[in-house]
Amino acid sequence: MSDEREKIVVLTGAGISAESGISTFRDSGGLWERYPIEEVATAEAWERNPEKVLRFYNERRRQLLQAKPNAAHYALVELEQKFDVQIITQNVDDLHERSGSSKVLHLHGELLKARSSMDPRLIYPWKKDIRMGDLCEKGSQLRPNIVWFGEEVPAMDEAAKRVQVAKRLLIVGTSLMVYPAASLIHYLPPGMPVFLVDPNIESIPPLPNLKTFPEKAGKAVPALVKQWLRE
């Protein structure tokens, strides 16, 4: 049964999770200042030093398990009262799901899942540390279910399809600097209104029909949702 309500696509990035205490990667003091990408977030790093890669993501997973969704996450759930809300997230946390959002597409993988290093189709729910010697059913080492730099983003085609049929795009907490996710704006239907919530709007490329809210997600998203629900 199809959902005939107006479709709103929400593209979220690190900024929405930062207010829940999740460390960001690119901001000043972010994770990439302490952990070079090439040492923990590439297939080459995994081949070179899997223990270091596992340690990095085990720390991230422990942090996530202590975090809670914030006002912005819950506001997006409220939006489902009136609209068909489809969330496309660059984040690897599960805060959208925990807050109650029903349609969430993860571009870069999910931290609370592990997958086979031999067969990417073998994916397992995983809330504890992944250790060397933890194997999939085919006998290969488990790795984080994360799309590393240089790896294909399997969900991109589905994400593009969702953007193409949306009536509004809400971008929350992302600078649109990470590709291929940033290329989703090229699939916008002509005249589609775009709403951007991010304190650092000066780094955002110019877009037609763009309305900006240079504030943190926890303040701007609930206000915008309240306005849309009153329409």
Written overview of the protein:
By secondary structure, the chain is α/β, with parallel strands linked by helices. The chain has 2 domains: 1-22 and 69-108 and 153-231, 3-Layer(aba) Sandwich (Rossmann fold); 23-66 and 113-146, SIR2/SIRT2 'Small Domain' (2-Layer Sandwich). Helices cover 31% and strands 19% of the residues. It is built from 9 helices and 9 strands. The protein has helices spanning 14-18, 31-34, 37-40, 43-48, 50-66, 71-78, 95-99, 156-164, 217-230, and strands at residues 7-12, 84-89, 104-106, 109-116, 123-125, 142-146, 168-172, 194-197, 210-213. The strands form 2 sheets. It has a 6-stranded parallel β-sheet. Strands 5-4-6 form a 3-stranded antiparallel β-sheet. Strand 2, helix 7 and strand 3 form a beta-alpha-beta unit. Helix 6 (71-78) runs parallel beside helix 9 (217-230). It is elongated and about 55 Å long. The mean pLDDT is 91.
